[in-house]
Design brief:
The chain folds into two domains: 3-41 and 49-54 and 116-186 and 282-366, 3-Layer(bba) Sandwich (FAD/NAD(P)-binding domain), CATH 3.50.50; 72-113 and 189-281 and 369-399, D-Amino Acid Oxidase, Chain A, domain 2, CATH 3.30.9. 36% of the residues lie in helices and 33% in strands. The chain contains eleven helices and 19 strands. Bound molecules: flavin-adenine dinucleotide. Flavin-adenine dinucleotide binds at residues 11-17, 34-37, 51, 53-54, 140-141, 169-171, 175, 193, 195, 235, 278, 297-298, 305, 308, 310-312, 314.
């Protein structure tokens, strides 16, 4: 049976794994990505990922370095203002409002939003053009055996692969993490998120709007206009049973409920396409490394989709890992060795833990049912917004600055 050799093996070709493949290839490593399922790059195909990702500025910088941004830019909707609204009462009125404007921190935008199915299409296209990277799929990694100077990897077609470093981007139920015996800690919130697109009567003006109300936040994220019509992507977090009901509703009943929940901020909204349901959990791995292995993205951490932190945190991990491996390689050291991987864990784990905690607090505040907690939520938003240095610090922290 044929043997494969590569500098770096990426297990998992989700958005995170494909980002890693292009980033390591751009840094000059021979890189191979293996994914268990073929990438779905058509938005109308069954199983297409209809979520979108808001890439914050540091992530856009990484996509630029990887040579991906040039192909993505034309599809991206800039996010110039992050608007948080607090809604309550039977009339779905807006009780408090805060606009966080990127110009306050001297930036033209906080980031750019792109549909996930399109990201996959562009990323796969890009990988296929590279001479030092490839994607093999459908193909599974069934076992890894780390040794002192390499890792032996068994593939589901019987082939054996040798690599210096395994990057596990194989998702929240990571097989690699399990094989390495790395523990996880998980939290449940009793919530689910409904992800879908809407056609809006009014233009979004590049404002991303998060509306807080018991049950969880409802977020409208700008998408580019198409054929003169206005679109936004929606992530609607609700208690599990309510989210199940929303998924089952016919389009007319759903649009009615949707328009109450959106408080009319973008005029009349109409469902455009399918609705997908995602369970909401938070999860973190006890460490981000094992022998010759780095955990990345949901294999390392899962957080509720608030403040666009999930994949952005993963790309911050990736950026750190690329820098560490390049530095080791360029000084003649072992780029897959313990020193590099321990430093990766030491530098990224505290940031990951802090962001999971921050999003947990925001989510619990957004879910709050009791009047006292809801009053506290409104007061917190008012304080955060009303004090300029605090507001600017929050915006910078959201982007990833320490
Ligand atoms: C509703 C919603 C909205 C979100 N919005 C945002 C946002 O705006 N901004 C943001 O930053 N984040 C956002 N996130 C988070 C973001 O979507 C995730 O962080 C990201 O999609 C996770 O990608 P991943 O590549 O780690 O995992 P996955 O997409 O699960 O990919 C894992 C891949 O590994 C493969 N695999 C598994 N096991 C094996 C194996 N043994 N061998 C080979 N392949 C294997 C699978 O086939 C799969 O393709 C959102 C999340 C949700 C739920």
């Amino acid at each position: 049976m044929e043997q494969l050799n590569t500098d770096i093996l990426i297990v998992g070709g989700g958005v995170a794994g494909l980002s890693a493949t292009t980033a390591f290839a751009a840094a000059g490593f021979k890189t191979l990505c293996v994914d268990a399922v073929p990438p779905i790059v058509d938005q109308n195909a069954d199983g297409a990922d209809l979520r979108s990702t808001a890439f914050l500025l540091p992530s856009v910088d990484l996509l630029k370095q990887s040579g991906l941004w040039q192909g993505l830019e034309e599809y991206a909707a800039p996010l110039r203002i992050m608007r948080i609204l607090d809604s309550g009462g039977e009339d779905h009125g807006i009780r408090e409002q805060a606009n966080f404007d990127a110009r306050d921190i001297d930036q033209p935008a906080f980031g750019y939003n792109l549909p996930n199915w399109l990201l996959r299409r562009e990323m796969v296209d890009h990988v296929n053009k590279l001479t030092n990277a490839s994607l093999l799929s459908p193909l599974k990694v069934t076992r890894i055996t780390p040794r002192s100077d390499e890792v032996l990897v068994n593939l589901s077609d019987g082939r054996l692969l040798r690599t210096k470093l395994v990057v596990a981007a194989d998702g929240r139920n990571s097989l690699i993490r399990e094989q390495l015996g790395i523990d996880i800690q998980s939290w449940r919130y009793g919530q689910k998120a409904l992800a879908f697109n809407v056609e809006c009567a009014l233009p979004h003006q590049n404002i991303s709007t998060e509306i807080h109300r018991s049950g969880g936040p409802f977020t409208l994220v700008p998408l580019p206009d198409l054929d003169g019509k206005h679109y936004s992507a929606v992530v609607w977090m609700e208690t599990g049973p309510n989210a199940d009901d929303l998924l089952k509703m016919d389009a007319a009943a759903f649009n009615d409920t949707l328009n109450k929940r959106s408080c009319g901020v973008l005029g009349d909204l109409k469902l455009a396409g399918k609705r997908l349901l995602w369970p909401i959990i938070a999860q973190r791995a006890a460490r981000l490394n094992g022998p010759r292995t780095a955990l990345l993205a949901e294999a390392a951490h899962v957080i509720p989709p608030i403040g666009a932190q999930g994949l952005n945190m993963s790309l911050a991990d990736l950026s750190a890992l690329v820098n560490l491996t390049v530095e080791a390689r360029d000084s003649g050291k072992d780029f897959g060795g313990t020193k590099v991987l321990n430093t990766y864990n030491r530098t990224r784990w505290p940031d990951m833990a802090a962001r999971i905690k921050g999003v947990d607090v925001l989510n619990r505040a957004a879910m709050a049912k009791s009047q006292n907690l809801r009053d506290l939520r409104r007061a917190g938003l008012k304080t955060l917004y009303g004090i300029a240095p605090l507001r600017k610090a929050a915006m910078k922290a959201g982007l990833g600055a320490k």
